[in-house]
Write a structure and sequence with these properties.
Shape of chain B: globular
Main location (chain A): periplasm
Order of helices and strands of chain B: HHHHEEHHHHHHHH
Chains: A alpha+beta, B mainly alpha, C mainly alpha
Number of helices of chain B: 12
InterPro entries (chain A): Peptide/Ni-bd (IPR030678), SBP_5 (IPR039424), SBP_5_dom (IPR000914)
CATH architecture of chain C: Orthogonal Bundle
Shape of chain C: elongated
Largest interface: A-B, 60 and 52 residues
Keywords (chain A): Signal
Number of helices of chain C: 11
CATH architecture of the largest domain in chain B: Orthogonal Bundle
GO molecular function, one term (chain A): peptide transmembrane transporter activity
Low-confidence stretches of chain C: 1-7, 278-282
Family (chain A): Belongs to the bacterial solute-binding protein 5 family.
Distance between the termini of chain B: 13 Å
Oligomer: heterotrimer
Mean pLDDT of chain C: 83
CATH superfamily of chain C: MetI-like
Largest sheet of chain B: 2 strands, antiparallel
Structural class of chain C: mainly alpha
Radius of gyration of chain B: 24 Å
CATH topology of chain C: MetI-like fold
CATH class of chain C: Mainly Alpha
Structural class of chain B: mainly alpha
Largest sheet of chain C: none
Helix content of chain C: over 70%
């Protein structure tokens, strides 16, 4: 046995008390959850993940998503879409109330859709672009009227994508500066109690929650622990119960592998469909040549990358759509690992090895706000490129400098990032390839500068296609084109981990579990 | 040397401080203006997306689109009225943010200093009274070693040993959130959380003080007034504590003032390692997110504190040792 | 102190125990940095071995491997060169700026001195590590920015020391004599005062090097290291998340930093003692 195994065993023994066997939900107790500190507590107009992880306990959406990313009722009880795909009607919960006692009605949904999501939300603008009117025939019915079918709409109306705000608090105010953004009033299972910046945030049970008998927990304490080691130690010492959003580094997960003491949930982030990718600036010398980009793609052993950098937590990516988005996923990548083919392509492109064995030199930028995995992936790619004679200079900058360099100045060769592809390609993937989305100065747009009129047409067609089978065919063609042209190398399908004590239980598994309300969560009492 | 009045001295020192504070504001303003990217880039990046029109709108709202000199004058004008501005990212006034974090940092710093002064003096006196012995050698090595250990690394190793390994002390935070303690239990809880960060931060200063006390005491052992005291029949312990040690205090106070600026630097690292909710971490966050107002506010605030501490020490000097000419010390 | 104090310096240094100890330690570290790559050839970035091997677990990697399967022994010797280089160059910068400020202020006095001292005070008032972080973060983390940033925040102490020396030496006979025979100011400063003011600056610089090496490690810990260069700080920064399961990844380079800093401190202290004979026997 290795010494490190002995050590981890020793740590684990010292930490947690024995656990009761699986039981029915228990009321009471406070869950202590670690997240990264959010700047505000409202997700209705911003997609910062850690805001979503906290605000989702307080504010709700129309639906949430199961493990297959199919919508399940939340504030919307049921829904139906007309045959032409132009009218969708939601029936709302009758007994939901805001935390200040006001009733929740269709007017709140209408207000938030038209004034917040459609105007201010970075994705909402696209998701609800086709919405021409929102009808509210009665307080518990909302009908969304569309100018063209929008199948993707159902993929982004949970509390993270389309969070419903109280109209009576926000109407007539400057929504972005409303004080409720930092002390939200929602319909959710937990009410906001206090926020000590830099330290913690306390939520308490909402006694009037619309699901009778829930939430089980008395409250939630969110703690902010900036150091990764301290987080792992705190979880082992029983100082905290849950960490959401890969707060425990993959290299430490082995210490939490004892299922009788800890649970590692790898499904909570399926909804985000995140892919670690390398985007190539096609406006740069050499990189405008498709053969060179293909060669770079052939140089990277994605399976080894997952194994070495992500310790197996993740999957080699094959294309722009990850396997968790099952209805559009298309297996296989003709540009997979093949270093010999890479060298051949570079030779064909006229970039032969020089006397020093090197062909050319390029840089790779990444943001320092990202995880250490992102840095290590850069080091891995550098080694991989060195083998085919491409010299790579790594640049790690803080996010302001990185975003400026990539999206405003275009002063880079390759950039890496973990981007959310979301359950629908029109929402999360199109933005990276669409010619109209080459927007100087705006982050997370088409920063590679890649432009292909044929692809543009296919993507636009897919967006307004109401028939699932035809839409799939279009998305397939889309994927083939971008694999062939390779302006972006999709490398790893990321897994978001929720690591908790085994005492932490949840009744309903969710594909968007990072943004779960946790009304169905409880803590098995320690014996 | 002629001793001048205290009041003009204080006024003159305060007047000298103004250009320094102005320089700090200007220096930081300039550096951060040279930086690529601004808070709007950060906000848009965090938001997930933004249109260029919206970003331009934000820049206009934050006043970032105005010419640099105008922005700078505006900032100076605000400073003159003690208005540190607004943190656009955290949606709060800078002064408010600083005030919520200040108590934690002050507690950490004063505890660390107290530990450093007490332990440092003790070690120094011990070494000085046994100069040349094995105890002196051992202490010297210990002090040298503490001096050489990087603070953050010591903190990390302390977590590995005392929190992860032995489970004696909490790994971070300032108190057990939501424990619902009474006042007394709360104090105990904070004290328990304080041990590791305070001791970690104190080690470097402790080493400095120990060496300072040792050397200044040895220097004084041969001095006239000690010989006089000996001749008058004062006991060795009395000589050590009352005479030699008291005189060693003076350089220690000087050192303390000199180091007050470096404490925030140490706090950045220690607060990061131990999740201590203080100013140091806030400063680091402000750098990362290009929160110009917040960072300038923190630096300005800490500079004012440093300047005041130095002034206080100068005054203390005059009071402790009338031979010192207040104007002469810095000339 | 005057030029006549020089001849005995080497002798005094060699009998000074801490200086000798520091020099020996430093020689060992330098030897490792120079010979090391011969003993552990190959790229320290090469991910060839099983990841997270403990020291001694496999003799092919005597000091173990990091989380990416990179040999720590190769990393440590490569890091020695980088960390020493960063310490030396940033100290040269600090000594340069500090000497310039201190010399001008001390020589001219008056308003020149007042202005220069205000600037020095400014840099002493701003928390130096915070300023270094700002500089490195803002101007893209790399070896060059780290060296510059550390140099820029480290000079005030040298400036004060040089200024004090100049104030002292300015009135000495040999300087006044030089003035009367019509030596120009630059020549006076460079040939008469500076050589006599330098010894304590050298002693202080060894301490500055020590501090610079610590600062580089701290910057890397915060993720502000150069991703293309393997320094001790880089290894610590990369291993900081594995501390609890593999403390040696951070621990070994940390110990290397401690030993090196210790060596420089010993040397600096010894130099100080040797240069201040009246403090020697304390």
């Amino acid at each position: 046995m290795h010494r490190r195994d002995l050590m981890t065993g020793g740590f684990a023994l010292a930490s947690l008390p024995a656990i009761a066997q699986p039981t029915a939900p228990v009321r009471g107790g406070t869950a202590r959850i670690v997240v990264e500190e959010p700047p505000i507590l409202t997700s209705a107009f911003i997609t910062t993940m850690n805001i979503g992880m906290v605000s989702s306990k307080i504010l709700e959406g129309l639906v949430s998503y199961d493990l297959e990313l199919k919508p399940v009722p939340a504030l919307a009880e049921s829904w139906e879409t007309s045959a032409d795909g132009l009218r969708t009607t939601f029936r709302l919960r009758q007994n939901a109330k805001w935390h200040d006692g006001q009733p929740f009605t269709s007017a709140d949904v209408r207000f938030t859709l038209l004034e917040v999501w459609k105007k201010l939300h970075p994705f909402g603008r696209a998701v609800f672009a086709n919405v021409t009117e929102v009808e509210t025939p009665d307080p518990h019915t909302v009908t969304v009227v569309l100018s063209a079918p929008a199948l993707y709409l159902f993929n982004y109306i949970n509390t993270y994508g389309a969070q419903i705000l109280p109209r009576h608090i926000y109407e007539g105010t400057d929504i972005l500066k409303n004080p409720a953004n930092s002390a939200p009033i929602g319909t959710g299972p937990f009410r906001f109690k206090e926020w000590t910046r830099g330290s913690h945030l306390i939520l308490e049970r909402n006694p009037d929650y619309w699901q009778a008998g829930k939430p089980y927990l008395d409250g939630i304490i969110f703690r902010f622990i900036p150091d990764a080691v301290a987080r792992s130690v705190a979880l082992e010492a029983g100082e905290i119960d849950v960490t959401i959003g890969s707060q425990i580094p993959v290299t430490s997960l082995r210490r939490f592998s004892d299922a009788s003491k800890y649970t590692i949930n790898t499904d909570d982030g399926r909804f985000l469909a995140s892919i670690f990718l390398a985007q190539i600036n096609v406006r740069r010398p050499h990189l405008g040549d498709r053969r060179v980009r293909q060669a770079l793609s052939h140089a990277i052993d994605r399976a080894a990358l997952v194994r070495l950098v992500w310790q197996g937590y993740g999957k080699p990516a094959t294309g722009p759509i990850p396997s968790s988005v099952a209805q559009y996923y298309h297996r296989g990548n003709p540009q997979g690992f093949d270093p010999r083919r890479a060298e051949q392509l570079l030779d064909e492109a006229g970039l032969r090895r020089g006397a020093d064995g090197k062909r050319f030199r390029i840089n790779l930028v990444s943001g320092s706000g990202n995880s250490l995995e992102s840095n290590r992936a850069g080091e891995f790619i550098k080694q991989s490129f060195a083998r085919i004679g491409v010299d790579l200079e790594l640049i790690i900058e803080d996010s302001a400098a990185y975003l400026r360099r990539v999206y405003t100045d275009g002063d880079y060769d390759i950039m890496t990032s973990s981007l959310h592809k979301l359950p629908d390609p029109t929402l999360g993937v199109q933005r990276l390839y669409w010619t109209q989305n080459i927007i100087r100065g705006a982050p997370w747009t088409n920063g590679s500068g890649y432009s292909n009129p044929e692809l543009d047409r296919i993507m636009e067609q897919a967006a307004s296609e109401g028939d699932l089978a035809r839409r799939r065919a279009l998305v397939n063609r889309w994927q083939e084109i971008v694999q062939e042209d390779a302006p972006i190398l999709d490398l790893v399908e990321l897994t978001w981990t929720t690591v908790s004590t085994a005492r932490f239980r949840k009744e309903r598994p969710q594909g968007d579990g990072m943004f779960a309300g946790l009304e169905d969560a409880w803590l098995v009492p320690a014996r | 040397m002629k001793r001048r009045g205290l009041r003009p001295f204080v006024l003159r020192r305060l007047w000298q401080v103004v250009p320094v504070l102005f320089g700090i504001a200007a220096l930081n303003f300039l550096i951060l203006q040279l930086a690529p990217g601004d808070v709007v880039d950060v906000l848009a990046g965090e938001a997930g997306a933004a249109t260029p029109e919206y970003m331009a709108q934000l820049r206009a709202a934050f006043g970032l689109d105005r010419p640099l000199p105008v922005q700078f004058l505006h900032y100076l004008g605000n400073l003159a009225t003690l208005d540190l501005g607004f943190s656009f990212r955290l949606n709060m006034p800078v002064l408010g943010l600083i005030m919520t974090r200040l108590p934690a940092t002050l507690l950490l710093m004063t505890s660390a200093l107290a530990i450093a002064v007490v332990a440092g003096s003790l070690l120094g006196v011990l070494a000085a009274t046994r100069v040349g012995s094995w105890a002196d050698t051992a202490l010297s090595w210990f002090v040298l070693l503490t001096y050489a250990v990087p603070t953050f690394w010591l903190g990390l190793m302390a977590i590995v040993l005392f929190s992860a390994g032995l489970g004696w002390l909490p790994s971070g935070g300032m108190y057990t959130v939501g424990a619902g303690h009474g006042a007394l239990a709360m104090i105990g809880d904070v004290a328990l959380h304080l041990i590791l960060p305070a001791v970690t931060l104190s080690t470097f200063y402790m080493a400095v003080y120990a060496r300072l006390v040792r050397s200044s005491m040895l220097e004084l052992y041969g001095a006239d007034f000690i010989r006089t005291a000996r001749a008058k029949g004062a006991g060795e312990w009395r000589i050590t504590l009352v005479h030699a040690f008291r005189n060693a205090l003076l350089p220690m106070v000087t050192m303390l003032a000199y180091q007050s600026a470096s404490l925030l630097s140490g706090a950045v690292l220690v607060e990061t390692v131990f999740s201590w909710p203080g100013l140091g971490r806030l400063a680091y966050e402000a750098i990362r997110t290009r929160d110009l107002n917040l960072l300038l506010g923190i630096l300005f605030f800490s500079s004012v504190v440093v300047v005041l501490v130095n002034l206080l020490v100068d005054l203390l000097y005059v009071l402790i040792d009338p031979r010192v000419d207040p104007a002469g010390r810095r000339a | 102190m005057s030029a006549s104090a020089q001849p005995g310096l080497l002798w005094r240094l060699s009998v000074n125990r801490s200086a000798a100890g520091g020099a020996v330690l430093l020689a060992l570290i330098l030897a490792l940095a120079i010979i090391g790559p011969l003993l552990w050839p190959g790229d320290p970035w090469e991910m060839a071995a099983p990841p997270m091997l403990w020291p001694g677990e496999d003799m092919a990697n005597p000091l173990g491997t990091d989380v990416m399967g990179r040999d720590l022994a190769a990393g440590l010797v490569s890091g020695a060169r980088v960390s020493l280089m960063i310490g030396l160059v940033s100290t040269l910068i600090a000594a340069g700026i500090g000497t310039l400020f201190g010399a001008l202020g001390g020589f001219y006095g008056g308003s020149v001195d007042a202005v220069l001292m205000r600037v020095t005070e400014l840099f002493q008032t701003v928390p130096s590590f915070v300023l270094a972080v700002v500089l490195v973060a803002v101007f893209r983390p790399s070896v060059a920015t780290a060296v510059l940033a550390i140099g820029i925040v480290s000079w005030p102490a040298t400036a004060r020391l040089v200024r004090a020396q100049f104030l002292l030496l300015r009135e000495r006979e040999f300087v006044l004599a030089g003035e009367t025979i019509g030596m120009g100011t630059p020549r006076l400063i460079l040939t008469q005062i500076l050589p006599n003011a330098l010894p304590p600056v050298i002693a202080m610089s060894t301490l500055t090097i020590a501090h610079a090496i610590q600062t580089e490690a701290a910057l890397s810990f915060l993720g502000l290291g150069d991703p293309n260069v393997m320094s001790w700080g880089t290894i610590i920064g990369g291993g900081r998340e594995q501390l609890a399961e593999a403390w040696y990844v951070c621990g070994l380079p940390g110990i290397a930093v401690v030993v090196t800093v210790l060596a420089f401190n010993l040397l600096g202290e010894g130099l100080n003692d040797a240069l201040n004979p009246h403090l020697q026997r304390r």
